[in-house]
Amino acid sequence: MGFRWRFEYSLLSMVLLSVAAVHFSDELLQQARVIRPGNPFIAEAMSDQRNGGNSEVTRVPGAGFDLRCALRDRYRYPYCGIALRFDPQLLKGIDLSEVRRMRLWLDYKGPASTLKVQLRNASPAYGIPQTENESAKYNHIEINTDSVHNGMVELDLRNFVVANWWMQQFHVAPHLGRPEFDNVITLEITTGTEAPLGNYRFVLHKIEYDVQHISTERWYLIIMSIWLALALLYLFMRLLRLQSVVRQQRQQSHELQEINRALDVRSQQLVQMATTDALTGAFNRKGLEDVLQQALTDWRRHQHPLGLVLIDVDHFKAVNDTHGHQAGDRVLAGLAELVRNHVRGQDLLGRWGGEEFLLVCRDTHLPQAVAIAEKLRALVAGHHFSGDLRITASFGVAAMDSDRPLDQVFAAADAALYRAKAGGRNRVVAEGLGAA
Ligand SMILES: Nc1nc2c(ncn2[C@@H]2O[C@H](COP(=O)(O)OP(=O)(O)OP(=O)(O)O)[C@@H](O)[C@H]2O)c(=O)[nH]1
After folding, report:
1. Residue 406 C-alpha to ligand 1 middle, in angstroms?
2. CA-312 nearest atom, ligand 1
3. CA 121 to chain centre
4. Residue 38 and residue 16: Cα distance in Å, rounded?
5. Could you report the per-residue pLDDT of 257-316, keeping only the tens digit for each?
6. What is its EC number (predicted)?
7. Residue 434: its pLDDT value, please?
8. How far apart are CA 162 and CA 109, in angstroms?
9. Predicted local confidence at residue 403, as pLDDT
10. Ramachandran assignment for 110, one of left (phi > 0), alpha (psi -120 to 50 degrees), beta (any other)
């Protein structure tokens, strides 16, 4: 599986995981906590008797906290109910600030159609609860008794409000009027507002609430951080990959350059082989044709003078016959080297065939070409070739002029050479002239 596919599968998995993490965040983050009356917190019956009323409460032994209550008419707001104290000192309660839902398992019978649930929060900011219970903040909600289904009612803590009478009674500053649950010291379930007089029964079995160790905001932040970290990781990996691709491409391009260079050298070698005589290193017939063609083009374009010098070894057959064919070969190679070493770089030597050479002299008039030929003749005649062989050569010289095509100039040089041979060899003959 390639990098791209792996990446796409990982991305898809990450998207699915993120969607699941967001969708099931409640289930993942929330953990249910159960409180049963008396374990570990104390449950108490409460009534308006503490406000001077004469409603009567009795606790019936049995499962849960079973309370019977006769609501009687004396106190202005008769009430009765159950109080669950999280701290008997009314100081250090439980922190429900991250709790959203709370479920009460409760059986209720009575003439009132509403019940009150109160979460009393203590804080030095609005009173000293150990001296006066009432000073704990009155976070409360009034629920309809119909909302108790199968003995259970679920409360959303965001729907709680702070009782106005409590704000007024304790002269609480308006900015403290929002519900707070960070130190709940008491949970109270009582008869609702203006409950009718009569007999009531409350049975509180248990309380369950969901705690969230990580807030939803923090959960989203974690998901986003993971995405960010993965994106950075991906970019980093991509950077590494790109670097390796660039390195590979550089390597490949370097190798290609090397191959090209080798091919260039080889092709130059091939061109040279195709145009060079292997024995003497001079141009071969094909190379000479190219050289002559180029020289002719230059001559036509710029009218630069062009001299041709034909060189033919004298009695070469005798060299072969006397010293062997290989010695003859060495003489030919030595002659070519001697000539090349004593002419200008622009003068090009080719082997016309057998023991015959053609020296193409650019920018050279006939007298200069004759002078070059004479210089070479003397050099050849005075040179000791391999095996201390001595030879002479004959030279026929001609020069390009506007009236003749090249083949006629060449023929003139050939004719001059013939005359040099006929004239006794080891001499230079120029076209139209005698021996130099
Ligand atoms: N060793 C050697 N001999 C060659 C080569 N090419 C041609 N020859 C010989 O060169 C000789 C040329 O002989 P000829 O044409 O009779 O001319 P020559 O003996 O030089 O006499 P002149 O040119 O009249 O002075 C022949 O014997 C060829 O075999 C070569 O590449 N190597």
Report:
1. 26
2. 23
3. 55
4. 45
5. 999 999 999 999 898 888 999 999 999 999 999 988 888 888 888 888 899 999 999 999
6. 2.7.7.65
7. 47
8. 26
9. 67
10. left
pLDDT reported for residue 392: 97
Res 31: pLDDT: 84
If one counts every other C-beta atom within 10 angstroms of the C-beta of residue 136, the result is 26
Three-state secondary-structure class, residue 372: helix
Tokens of 72: 């009687």
Among candidate residues 375, 374, 364, the one with its CA nearest the CA of residue 399: 364
| Domains parsed from the chain with CATH numbers | 36-213 (2.60.120.430), 285-430 (3.30.70.270)
Q: How far is the CA of 206 from the centre of ligand 1 (A)?
A: 129
Pairing type for strands 65-71 and 198-212 reads antiparallel
Residue nearest to atom 8 of ligand 1 (CA): 354
What the block records as the tokens of 80 is: 């009765």
State ipTM: 0.96
* Residue 314 alpha carbon, nearest atom of ligand 1: 25
- Cβ neighbours of residue 155 closer than 8 Å, sequence gap 6 or more: 101, 102, 103, 104, 117, 141, 143
